[in-house]
Amino acid sequence: MSTTYRYALPVEQTEWKFEGKTETRFTWEYEDEREALLALYDKGKKQQWNAASRIDWSQDLDPENPMLMDDRTIPIYGSPVWDRLTRQEKARVRHHYQAANLSQFMHGEQGALIATAKIVQSVPDLDAKFYAATQVMDEARHVEAYSRLLHEKFELAYPITPGLKSLLETGLSDRRWDITYLTMQILIEGLALAAFQRIRDTAGNPLAASVNAYVMQDEARHVAFGRLALRDYYPKLSDAERDEREDFAVEACYHMRDRFNQFEVWERLGLPAKECAEIMMKSEMMRQFRTRLFSRIVPTVKDIGLWGPRIRAAYEDMGVLEFASLDAAAMLENDGRVAEEFDLGTHVAKAISS
After folding, report:
1. Is 34 among the domain residues?
2. What DSSP state is assigned to residue 75?
3. Secondary structure tally for the chain: helices H, strands E
4. Contact 130, 34 (CB under 8 A)
5. Which of 86 and 289 is assigned the larger pLDDT?
6. How many domains is the chain partitioned into structurally?
7. Rounded mean pLDDT of 275-287?
8. Residue percentage of the chain with pLDDT more than 70
9. Tens digits of per-residue pLDDT, 88-116?
10. Residue 157, beta-bridge partner list
11. 341 belongs to a structural domain
12. What count of Cα atoms within 13 Å lies in the side-chain half-sphere of residue 18?
């Protein structure tokens, strides 16, 4: 069935177009390559996988709680609005809330697919073009996996949110290749890793958990790719050019933090949308979640050299400066190990025993 009929909200069109500027760069230097990026490229080739066979699609979802997530992950849980709901209404909230989150993953992965294709076209170095080419395939696979999960299992999808749409357009329309990197590889993919991790580590349904685990294995390499490329490039920029990138990152981080109100979901469910959005903003659970979302971004931004007073002040204001001391590389390596545990069937067993 067409996605148009899966959307919980009406959509007027099934495509989105905007004008952008992209430089196309060829390079005739085939030998002057960075060992670390070539190693990542080799790893990307070896870790290609088939979404149709690696994931066990025969598994079903519970219609009352598709991903078997704790109700405390629902931002309005425990509020007067939640307490007034019947059992059937609560089940509908779970279904729509989970589908809405996965829908943004699906749309974001398509954004990454297009962004990485642009990186192949615009990045100046051949080793980066090589790795970006493997990421294009990764992102196509991720769109496939989330699309199948939503179409076949949830039978429901939500359109892209205005916040994600705006950030994607900003990053994709800029002619400078490093802004596309910064937007997608560092900011959006870093945020996504934290959101994926929440489902991977807490979902009781093995199908939902495994999809996120396998996507995270790839995304960890993608963030590492951005780290390697930008860590080499940003020290070469002038102070004014780095300040511009820092200002962009600050604005994007505030934008991402404040976009989690799920207004469309509450409105679609017939709940008081404004009241639910206010409950979300005051929710301690959501405060902690919004903070944890930046656990992957902050240490990476520091690592690539965007660590001037503007960005430090912004992260302190957001309450996430403490994440600067985390080992970004170690977290990314762990994402790969966890995916291998899912292949062996040991991750769920470890989670149950602990």
Report:
1. no
2. T
3. 17, 0
4. no
5. 86
6. 1
7. 88
8. 93
9. 999 999 999 999 999 999 999 999 999 99
10. 7
11. yes
12. 15
Q: Are 105 and 146 a contacting pair, CB within 8 Å?
A: yes
Query: Which domain range does residue 321 map to?
Result: 60-353
CATH of the domain at 320: 1.20.1260.10
Distances 246 to 105, 192, 212, 241, 273 between C-alpha atoms, Å:
25, 20, 30, 9, 34
pTM (predicted TM-score): 0.89
215's CB contacts (< 8 A; 6+ apart) are 105, 109, 142, 145, 146, 196
Tell me which residue of 129, 103, 342, 58 sits closest to 217, measured CA to CA: 342
Other beta carbons within 10 Å of 42: 13
Do 280 and 260 contact (CB within 8 A), yes or no? yes
Residue 25 lies in a domain: no
% helix, strand, coil for the chain, step of 5: 70, 0, 30
Q: List, for residues 109-142, the tens digit of each pLDDT value.
A: 999 999 999 999 999 889 999 999 999 999 999 9
With a cut of 90, say whether residue 9 has pLDDT above it. no
**Does the residue 45 lie in any domain?**
no
- The residue type at 210: S
R_g of the chain computed on alpha carbons: 20
